Amino acid sequence: MKLEAGMTALVTGASRGMGTHIVHSLAQRGLNLVLAARSAEGLDAVAAGLGSGYGGRVLAVPTDMADEGALKALAETALREFGGVDVLVNNAGIESARSYEQTEPAELRQMIEVNLLAPMLLTRLLLPGMLARGRGHIVNIASMAGLIGTAYEEPYNASKFGLVGFTRGLRLTAQDSGWPVSASVICPGFMSGVGMFADMEKQHAVSAPKLVGTVPAERLGPAVIEAIEKDLPDSILMKGTPRLNVAMSVLAPRFFEKLVRWLNLAGAFRTAAKGTR
Fold first, then answer.
1. What CA–CA distance (Å, rounded) separates 269 from 10?
2. Fewest Cβ atoms nearer than 10 Å: which of 32, 72, 157, 217?
3. What single string gives the DSSP state of each residue in 97-142?
């Protein structure tokens, strides 16, 4: 789908981190923006940062992604103010490295509600309008942890594996049904600058494995644009050979586990988990 000025995009998790890069990339294309996150102050700061040269309208809607009623209100507000949403970017997410036996049931529920259920619910709320207008694209921001396992992050893995599966199933339904709507999933690896891993670096003084390295968070915004306009099934933002690693984890799981230990890919998460009580 070709992005054009005057279209409307709804972006969750827009108040900080990698969400800001998504917002700015969409703003550069002249789209109207509905920005959603829990922090009203953060959303206002992002909106103000778009500058006077931004040609589209922007609407900040503070939203708790774990609250189904709030998600419904968000969708209704977007539809009322702009008449429809052409692009939905499900970016909001939470991550926590922790020994699984120490994880509280409430944490498990919140992880699934924010990372997986919220994107599914928002898609369900906005999809009928997209189909009626004859255009639309859904972009789900998952993670490499949605393609290969990550030690000390079992709930996060589960939520992101689910988001990848949801996106792939939605694409196949769209193609089989002849919908004018599609979906893409983006799977970042270790990202630098801002985002969950950058927060982990600051809080726990960890670093990405040397043979893997990091990718600048600034690449996420252009990746979202590319996924929409080229209708990509997925986009993996990670150095090295990530697709080969994913294939290896399926075709040779024992060898892949040995490789993970040899590269100490769990090191950063192990350190973070020990520091999270």
1. 31
2. 72
3. ---GGG--HHHHHHHHIIIIIHHHHHHHHHHHHHHHHT-EEEEEE-
Mean pLDDT of 7-12: 98
Element at 176 (helix H, strand E): helix 154-177
Alpha-carbon torsion (139, 142, 143, 149), positive or negative: negative
Those residues with Cβ within 8 angstroms of residue 256's Cβ, 6 or more apart along the chain or in another chain = 148, 245, 248, 249
Note the Cα 146 to chain centre separation in Å: 11
Of residues 131 and 207, which shows the higher confidence score?
Answer: 131
The CATH number of the domain where 225 resides is what? 3.40.50.720
Report the C-alpha gap between 229 and 135 in whole angstroms.
12
CA separation for the pair 252, 77 (Å, rounded): 48
Calculate the CA dihedral of residues 194, 70, 57, 216 and round it to 10 degrees.
10
Looking at the domain assignment, is residue 265 inside a domain?
A: yes
Domain annotation covers residue 139:
yes
- Helix 154-177, helix 105-112: angle, nearest 10: 30
Which range marks the domain in which residue 93 is found?
8-274
Amino acid at 258: K
**Residues designated as active site:** 156
How many C-beta atoms surround the C-beta of residue 243 within 10 A? 12
Interval 111-156: pLDDT, tens: 999 999 999 999 999 999 999 999 999 999 999 999 999 999 999 9
